[in-house]
Amino acid sequence: MLKQVMLMLMVLLRFTISNAQSIIEINDTIEERIFMPFELSYFIDSTNTIPFQKISSSAFASKFRQHSTYLNIDFETNASYWVRLQIKPNLQTKKYWLLEFYDQTIDSLEAFVPQGDFTFRQSKMGDHQKFYDRIFKHKNFEIPIEMKGDQVQSYYFKVRSHEFADVRIALRSAARFISYALNEYYLYGMFYGMILIITVYNFLVYLAIREVKFIYYICYILSVALYAMSYDGIGFQYVWPNHPEFNDWAIGVSLYLLIFWSLVFTRRFLSARANAPELDQALKVMIVLRSAWFVVSLLVYPKLLSFRTLEIIPLSLIFYTSITVWRGGYRPARFFVMAYGILFSGFFLRTLVYFNLLPFTTGTHYSLHFSFVFEMLFLTVALGDRIRILKDTRDRAMKRIIHQHEVNMQLKDKVTRELEAKVNERTHELGIKNEALQASNLKLNRQATEINQINSLLDLDNWKLKNRVKEVLEERMHKKVMGYDEFTTLYPDTLACYRFLEKLKDQHGFGCTKCGNSKYSTGAQKFARRCTRCGYNESVTANTLFQGIKFPITKAFYLAYLTFTNKGSFTLETLSVKLDLRLNTVWAFRQKVGERIALGEENKTSSESWEEIVLDVKLSRGKQKGGNLYQQSQVLSKK
Predict the structure, then answer these.
(1) 204-229: b (≥16 Cβ within 10 Å) or e
(2) I want to staple 18 with a disulfide (CB 3.0 to 4.6 A). Which of 66, 114, 303, 519 is the partner?
(3) Rounded CA gap, 575 and 586, in Å?
(4) Greater confidence, 636 or 601?
(5) Per-residue confidence (pLDDT) for residue 468, from 0 to 100
């Protein structure tokens, strides 16, 4: 509602002014007159094809009109704005007059100055032209007024820009222009001089304390200087006057650097990772998003560089983070809050001026520069305040350390004296106890000798007892069926089983099944034997009942034992559960043992012990007789 009322008041004011200022008269008593866009008569050529001859013709004059409802957001980019000023010369004037365009970021500005003989002199200006091609070597654009004749003369201006252009025109006397320009450049000198001083000061502080946050702050200050120089035209005048192509990118690039380094500096100065972890993540995300926006703007869609009002978002995040950290008890953040509060206000004020919610004045035009100055001063104070707070904290900590050290020294002296007294007392006691210990040691040594003799006798008795137990168990094994737990006492693991097989095979000698050689050496695997002639490697289970089994050999030993003795009432199901084997596995191995027993009975060599069925019967006989083992194995394989 308030915005609508303000808009209506502005429309009424502009309508009044537009009706009153159709023809401009030169008057020596008025040094300066500024014409706002809604006061000017202009025509918009969206096609950029209408020639000046047609624009300046009398038939086209009716198309020029004032737009009392004009707002900055109504500006059409890349369109030609033809502005017409009707000026009545004053031949009696004693002053030199000129027209000035405030906006130095206009891409192309063509002035058509009447010569008094119905002809026009054309002058090309704009930031797409080299700086030193201008008539006046000033950051703005000036066109001198020529007093030729006393008739009303029409000045035409063609304005074109790829982004918003402020089409304000000032009519000034030369004296007023010089005074205004000198004061303006003087203020610019102060502004950039302060930036230089603050930069040098912070660099010296960095050299002294070596904190990287000062480097971040210096980068931020230089980004502010670059943005201000690009925005107010000082950079084009003094830094890159012969490279007008930089002007299209300078503001967008410098503004990105300003926001980027402000986000980085904020994270470092406020220690956001420790004081506000969630906001620290938000700052990181904002850095990534702003960088992605800049890359897309730079490489894909350059028009995005002109959307500067979006910078209010990262500034708001910085301002909110500083307030949150400050309220959390981080004292160095207080001046930081003030600094970014002022900068945030300056950006916000410029945004209101852009949307015509506030009138244009010298103060509002330079509000951003003032904000930058105070912001840099407060940030410098904030850095100094942070150093002071850290120094005070360090001093208090040092005082506490010194005091604690003094207390510790007093306690140390006291404890030392007490310890010395106790040491003397304990030394005397230890002397007495030492004599008692020496006597006890002599007695213990005699007892130890006696105990060792007793242990030797016990070890001998234990060995004899174990052998006797083994013999008893073997006798029981042949007389009755042993349980699995008792059986594992004889053959507790795979190693015991392999030793048994190795001993059994050694009793029957060696005969290579490949070549019949009777000599061997140690094989590749443990307990294996290698033929010295053909190199055949015979595993410990080869040519035995347990060759090729796929389950633990300890269980195979027990199954062979049960099958041979054929005692007890163990069913296949019982053995399967007891030994944790599949039913088919138990049945197949029992069949294999049964076949080995049947083969022995067929050859009339019935075995008295289950161990006798372990080796292949015919192979073992052949080894004992020293026959050709290779031929015997071939006969057995054929059978």
Answers:
(1) ebbeeeebebbbbbbbbbbbbbbbbb
(2) 66
(3) 7
(4) 601
(5) 63
